[in-house]
Amino acid sequence: MPRAAMPCCVPPDGAPLVAVLAAGSARRFGGGKLDAMLAGKRVGQWVLDAVGSAGLAPGIIVVGQDMPQFACDSGWRLVTNPKALDGLGTSIAAAASQALAQGKPLLVLLADMPLVTPDHIGGLVRAGKSAATAWPQGRAGVPALIGMSLLPQAAALAGDAGAGILLSGDTSVARVDADPALLIDVDEAADLARAEDLLSQRG
Fold first, then answer.
1. How confident is the prediction for the chain on average, in pLDDT?
2. Is the peptide bond before 143 cis (omega within 30 degrees of 0)?
3. Which among 120, 166, 116, 121 is positioned nearest to 141, based on CA atoms?
4. Cβ–Cβ contacts within 10 Å for residue 52, how many?
5. Does 102 have pLDDT greater than 60?
6. Which end of the chain is more exposed for a tag (fewer CB within 10 A), N or C?
7. Residue 106 maps to which CATH number?
8. How far apart are CA 139 and CA 132, in angstroms?
9. What percent of the chain has pLDDT over 90?
10. Are 149 and 174 in contact (CB under 8 A)?
């Protein structure tokens, strides 16, 4: 059972730009997965609420041409990625360009990972200049904090190349362990039922 979430208490001048990626087509789900209801909230809303509970300010949501309703209702700034169908890398690049313009590191989260906790988000922000979630088999991936030194490379990503290709190749990137349950993403209808069951176990 995860311990109670605490705010990450990041000083305002050290806070990253938070980017939630929500531009996928959700083909495997049959469309509309980020607006599907999960334990009383839309799937995408869970990540936004975790960001707020971690003590971080709303940032941007990267969307495609078909904007999910949770994003439209969020009050966050929406950044449209016209190349969304080309792959996840284009959404990371769009977010990294925004962070570079603001002179801030970038915290990348996926809207279809509703079980990510405020504790994990705070741990990434506190870990160092760049930090990645430690996935099985030693992979580094999202959620992740992309520091200023890696932002130009992130802004050049294309196609399906994700943040892991940058984070795994840099030995200075901190690895933050995560309960495997946090890493579930909602790709298919069965994943929604599994996520709901795990959320019910949190109490």
1. 88
2. yes
3. 166
4. 13
5. yes
6. C
7. 3.90.550.10
8. 9
9. 65
10. no
Q: What pLDDT, on the 0 to 100 scale, is given for residue 194?
A: 92
**What total of structural domains would you count in the chain?**
1
Residue 1: pLDDT above 60?
no
Enter the tokens of residue 32. Answer: 């509309």
- Domain residues for 81? 15-202
Taking residues 128-144, report their average pLDDT.
Answer: 88
C-alpha separations of 166 from 71, 130, 152, 169, 192 in Å: 27, 10, 11, 6, 30
Reading the block at residue 87, the tokens are 């792959």
Q: Which two tokens stand for residue 50?
A: 């975790």
10 lies in a domain?
no
The answer to whether residue 172 sits within a structural domain is yes
**What pLDDT shows up at residue 138?**
74
- Residue 203 and residue 43 in contact, taking contact as beta carbons nearer than 8 Å: no
Residue 41 within any structural domain of the chain? yes
pTM: 0.90
Residue 13 zone, left/alpha/beta (φ > 0; ψ -120 to 50; rest): alpha
Q: Nearest to residue 75, comparing CAs of 55, 100, 45, 112?
A: 45
**How do residues 33-78 score in pLDDT, each as one tens digit?**
999 999 999 999 999 999 999 999 999 999 998 899 999 999 999 9
**Is beta strand 17-22 parallel, antiparallel or unpaired with respect to 60-63?**
parallel
Q: List the structure tokens of 160.
A: 């399906």
Tokens of 63: 């969307």
Token pair 């349950």: residue: 181
CB-based contact 142:109 (threshold 8 Å): yes
